[in-house]
Design a protein that fits this description.
Elements: H1 3-19, H2 25-35, E1 42-47, H3 52-65, E2 69-73, H4 83-86, E3 94-98, H5 104-114, E4 118-122, E5 129-130, E6 140-144, H6 153-158, E7 161-164, H7 176-192, H8 202-216, H9 220-231
Parallel strand pairs: 1-2, 1-6, 2-3, 4-6, 4-7, 5-7
Length: about 230
């Protein structure tokens, strides 16, 4: 780590300590508790979802099961958080949108591969893995496609594997939000019972704790400006 990075980390930590003065003990205890179950070992990718209430329900499931990062691909459809469905969950998450290029799907998946994620696409028609058999020996990005057509050919070509939820009825597919919730429940349960190093690093915990404190503290920007003015050079 460079001296500059060390200084930045120290500053962020001091800012975290400063902002904790302005939250209740109960909120601080909850933040610490939730941080212990947060992970970036699993991440979720939503490809061109055109029903915003479904995507917002997926965000709620990600937050509930401790998945911090969600990657949202906007090729034809722009996603806006539905506040009536997400119920505030999005402010505790990191959302990454891909909408600047002609082929946003390829850009997103390529970036995740560069970060050593294995791309696993949810599909009821490709029998690579049943959900309970999906190995978690690598960081994993779960990709969910649109409600009508599922994943695109680009996802199919770039995926490292496919996963399906076992189904025993006549209906061939699940609503995307239901499918995501089932997958996240099963996979986070397996992670918690494993010896995999799935938790956040200390630096990630500091960064996310700062983000959450800012969301929790009234007039947080004014307090941050005051802190920066008096402490930046100390």
């Amino acid at each position: 780590m460079t001296q500059s990075n060390k200084n930045d980390n120290s500053f962020d930590q001091r800012l975290v300590e400063y902002l904790t003065q302005f939250v209740t003990d109960q909120r601080l205890e909850k933040i610490e508790q939730v941080l212990e179950y947060r992970t970036r070992y699993l991440t979720v990718v939503l490809e061109d979802i055109y029903q915003p209430h479904n995507a917002s329900a997926v965000l709620r499931s990600c937050e509930i099961f401790g998945v911090q990062d969600i990657h949202i691909i906007e090729n034809d459809n722009e996603y806006e958080v539905n506040p009536d469905v997400v119920l505030g969950a999005s402010k505790w998450l990191n959302l990454f949108k891909y909408n600047k290029l002609e082929n946003n799907t390829a850009a997103c998946l390529s970036e995740l591969k560069e970060k050593n994620y294995r791309i696993i696409a949810a599909s009821p028609y490709d029998n690579n893995y049943l959900l309970e058999d999906l190995p978690l020996d690598n960081k994993t990005a779960l990709v969910f496609g649109t409600e009508m057509r599922g994943i695109t050919d680009i996802v199919t070509d770039m995926a490292d594997g496919f996963v399906k939820v076992p189904m025993y009825g006549f209906t061939e597919s699940l609503n995307i939000s239901v499918s995501a919730a089932i997958c996240l429940y099963e996979l986070t349960r397996k992670l918690h019972q494993s010896d995999i190093n799935w938790q956040l690093t200390d630096k990630e915990k500091t960064d996310i704790k700062l983000q959450w404190l800012i969301s929790s503290v009234k007039s947080s920007q004014m307090l941050i400006d005051r802190f920066v003015k008096t402490n930046r050079d100390s």
